[in-house]
Specification:
The complex is a heterodimer of chains A (360) and B (284). Chain A has 360 residues and is an all-alpha fold. Helices cover 72% and strands 0% of the residues of chain A. The radius of gyration of chain B is 23 Å and the shape is elongated. Classes of the chains: A mainly alpha (360), B mainly alpha (284). At the A-B interface, α1, α3, α8, α9 and α14 of A face α6, α7, α8, α10 and α11 of B. Chain B: This is Dipeptide transport system permease protein DppC.
């Protein structure tokens, strides 16, 4: 979750003190290398977890999956697909064999290859998550910075109240309130039935918004944006509270440092002072972006479902509710892989951005 | 003479508690609202039976006889919103308690800087690096649709946070002089952990408990919204929002909005309570 803890723990003891001279020379390189070496280990844990998930199914998995009215042939087929007739160790090895060849299996119910499904649904989720995070970061920073700047005065109180209110709403509930207000009462938003109106047919680009933006397809872009407004806002508003809290905290500290006092004494404009103070907290913000990105890959699933967004989260959720094992495993592997990669990039970016971070 | 007469008017034992509550609105408002919701869920006289439908009064807008209206099955929304606290709040508090115990049992022994505990924290990092809500939905739906499985889901999401918090705090406390003194007097590691370290992590645990309970209310509502852990016709806030979601685009707002407001109030009061405890911990 928090990579701040990760960093603190990477510099564990027991790594031998005699080589201190060598470590002092290239600490950053050593840290980066060690951080990259962890990736295969995490991947191994990730793959194993997704394998172990199947063992949680109680009773006869095939019957659990297909329901009590399944024919013996169906049960036999699922058992064969799951490989339940083979010993556990064989299953584990062949699971890894398939995984390493990029084969995530096929869905029990639709017979679609899981990888194909992911390629279809992941772009929708990525667009939703990226736009929601943009809203969350923008709004959260404004709320947090205003609160920190007017610390303990009335704007701070208002912003703190706003933060706790946003923090206390479940995103799917905010989405429903939005649908009621902006679709039913005001009629500004389109019906919550997907990414485009029904009559629009199949979309041209897999990345609907970014694709139509870059190809200059303005009518599609406008329609896609109006359909995206409510889901993006309901996620963005709820998650902005995280950024507001961190920004309020780190800006509050930064604004009381001697540097800021010195900058003011030098006669710099307030805008510049705030900008410099903000620079100190940018790594925290980036850290939160990465953490929330990871959790939104699946965490947006309920909002996706409310708006029938056809994203990866909704797809995985449907798979989970139907006990479609290959879909569950595929989602865990892909979402985990993306999160791991993101955290690796994040740690290296933070390392590059913040000269104070030492990994000794 | 006047000195002796003052002795009986010493403040009563309850007085400092009252003064603390007044000086800390977070604890009194947040805790009070939470207590009120819990008491109402169990003891308040309800205008209608929350699990008996009235087919003659389906989807009635809020009115004098049904203050929050009725849903598509003819249930009284107000009675159900109040009664749903029985499952939602109790499950949230139970899940928090189990998460705390898990955090203490794993986090405290891990508060040594050994290779073993570092390795465990690495594994915890990997575990926390995927969407835990999906993982918990997966585990709950795979292990069966029982209501106690929701507690496991809460523990899966919040247990690691407790472990991390308690371990971090205990590591810092270990550097204290009094631990050194305890070691010098020959105290065994177990005694040091449970007698000297554990009482000192209680403060941060209280704050985290309150935040965890708030998170648990969201998790429960989300799972119930998806139909997981619901045994109809028993009311839960999440399942009520789900029932109401179907009518929201056609204007029957009251079915989904009132249980949503209850979720909001529960989470908000827990967050306010956490803020109050935090202030108290920092102040002391």
């Amino acid at each position: 979750m928090s990579d701040v803890a990760t960093k603190a723990e990477v510099s564990g003891p027991g790594l031998g003190t005699p080589r201190r001279g060598e470590r002092r020379r290239r600490p950053i390189l050593r840290y980066a290398l060690r951080r990259i070496v962890i990736v295969p280990i995490s991947l191994f844990v990730l793959g194993s977890v997704s394998f172990v998930l199947v063992l949680f199914i109680p009773g006869d998995p095939a019957v659990t999956i297909l329901g009590d009215f399944a024919t013996p042939e169906q049960v036999a087929l699922v058992n064969q697909q799951l490989g339940l007739d083979k010993p556990l160790w064989d299953r584990y090895l062949s699971f890894w064999g398939n995984l390493l060849r990029g084969d995530l299996g096929t869905s029990f119910f639709t017979n679609e290859p899981v990888l194909h499904d992911i390629a279809r649904f992941l772009p929708n989720t990525l667009e939703l998550v990226v736009l929601a995070l943009l809203v969350a970061v923008g709004l959260g920073l404004v709320i947090g910075v205003v609160g920190a700047y007017f610390a303990r005065r009335w704007p701070d109180r208002v912003m703190t109240g706003l933060t706790s209110a946003l923090q206390s709403v479940p995103d799917f509930f905010l989405a429903l309130v939005g649908i009621y207000l902006f679709f039913f009462v005001l009629g500004w938003a389109p019906a919550p039935i997907g990414r485009l109106p029904i009559e629009a047919g199949a979309p041209e680009h897999s990345f609907l918004i970014f694709g139509s933006l870059f190809s200059g397809d303005w009518t599609t872009l406008g329609s896609a944006l109006s359909h995206a407004a409510l889901p993006v806002l309901s996620l963005g508003l709820v998650y902005s509270s995280y950024f507001a809290k961190t920004a309020r905290g780190s800006m509050g500290t930064a604004l009381t440092t001697p540097q800021v006092e010195f900058a003011r004494a030098c006669g710099l404009r307030e805008r510049t002072v705030v900008r410099y103070a903000f620079l100190a907290s940018r790594t925290t913000v980036i850290t939160y972006v990465a953490i929330l990105f990871g959790s939104l890959l699946g965490g947006a699933s309920i909002v996706e479902r409310v708006f029938n967004w056809r994203g990866m989260g909704q797809w995985a959720l449907d798979g989970v509710l139907k006990v479609d094992v290959p879909i569950i495993q595929g989602f865990v592997v892909v979402a985990g892989l993306m999160t791991l990669t993101l955290f690796l990039v994040l740690d290296l970016v933070v390392l590059a951005l913040d000269p104070r971070v030492s990994y000794e | 003479m006047s000195e002796t007469t003052k002795v009986p008017v010493r403040p009563s034992a309850a007085h400092p508690v009252w003064r603390a509550l007044r000086s800390n609105p977070g604890i009194s408002i947040g805790g009070g609202l939470l207590l009120l919701m819990l008491l109402a869920a169990f003891f308040a006289p309800l205008p209608y039976d929350p699990v008996t439908p009235d087919p003659a009064n389906v989807l009635q807008a809020p009115s004098g006889s049904h203050v929050f209206g009725t849903d598509a099955n003819g249930f009284d929304v107000f009675s159900r919103v109040v009664a749903a606290g029985r499952s939602d709040l109790v499950l949230a508090l139970l899940g928090t308690l189990v998460s705390l115990v898990v955090g203490l049992l794993i986090g405290l022994p891990l508060s040594t800087k050994s290779r073993y505990s570092e390795g465990f924290m690495r594994a915890l990092d990997a575990f926390q690096s995927f969407p835990l809500i999906v993982l918990s939905v997966t585990i709950v739906s795979l292990t069966g649709n029982a209501i106690q499985n929701i507690i496991y889901a809460i523990v899966i999401i919040n247990g690691p946070r407790f472990i991390r918090l308690i371990r971090g705090e205990a590591l810092a406390i270990r550097d204290g002089r009094f631990i050194e003194a305890a070691v010098a007097t020959g105290a065994r590691p177990r005694r040091i952990v449970f007698r000297h370290i554990m009482p000192n992590v209680v403060d941060v645990c209280l704050v985290q408990c309150s935040l965890t309970a708030a998170n648990a209310v969201i998790v429960i509502a989300a799972l119930n919204f998806l139909g997981i852990g619901v045994s109809p016709p028993d009311p839960t806030w999440g399942s009520m929002v789900q029932v109401g979601a179907q009518g929201i685009s056609t204007g029957q707002w009251w079915v989904a909005i009132w249980p949503g407001v209850a979720i909001f109030l529960a989470i908000a009061s827990l967050n306010v309570l956490a803020g109050g405890i935090q202030r108290r911990v920092e102040g002391s």
